[in-house]
């Protein structure tokens, strides 16, 4: 591994996250809640509708769509580790 780092001239960084870093905690029932105690609502149907729209299209009326932007969110996947995985 060390030879590979020297060859590619890379610096390895290790990052650790906790729920509190994301503003969440486990509730008494085992579900995720925000640090202020409010519950996390799942609005899957609204999200799907939002993602189906293209950037720049007009959003439907309703409080869920207030201050939202149409289109799919930017998703970044880190799969660099699979490049050097032993097979």
Count helical runs.
2
Which spans of ≥5 residues are poorly predicted at pLDDT below 50? none
Structural class estimated from helices and strands: alpha+beta
Question: Considering DSSP H and I runs of 4 or more, what fraction of the residues is helical?
Answer: 10-25%
Strand order of the largest sheet: 1-2
Report the sheet-strand fraction.
5-15%
Quaternary organisation = single chain
Biggest sheet statistics: 2 strands, antiparallel
Helix and strand element order: HEEH
- Measured on Cα atoms, how large is the radius of gyration? 20 Å
Number of domains: 1
Query: What is the overall shape?
Result: flat
The chain-level mean pLDDT equals: 82
Q: Kindly state the number of beta strands.
A: 2
Report, as a whole number of angstroms, the end-to-end distance. Answer: 16 Å
Could you give a short description of this structure?
Helix content is 18%, strand content 7%. The protein has 87 residues and is of the alpha+beta class. The chain has one domain (2-84).
Account of the 3D structure:
This protein is α+β, with helices and mostly antiparallel strands and 87 residues long. The chain is 18% helix and 7% strand. It has one domain (2-84). The chain has helices at residues 2-8, 44-52, and strands spanning 24-26, 32-34. Strand 1 and strand 2 (32-34) form a beta hairpin. The longest helix has 9 residues, at 44-52. It is flat and about 55 Å long. The chain starts with a helix and ends in a 35-residue tail after the last helix. The model has no long low-confidence stretch (mean pLDDT 82).
């Amino acid at each position: 591994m060390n030879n590979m780092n020297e060859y590619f001239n890379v610096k390895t960084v290790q990052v650790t996250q906790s729920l509190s870093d994301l503003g969440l905690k486990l509730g008494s029932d085992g579900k995720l809640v925000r640090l202020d105690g409010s519950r996390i609502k799942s609005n899957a149907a609204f999200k799907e509708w939002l993602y189906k729209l293209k950037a720049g299209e007009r959003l439907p009326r309703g409080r869920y769509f207030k201050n939202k932007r149409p289109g799919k969110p930017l998703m970044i996947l880190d799969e660099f580790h699979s490049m050097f995985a032993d097979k």
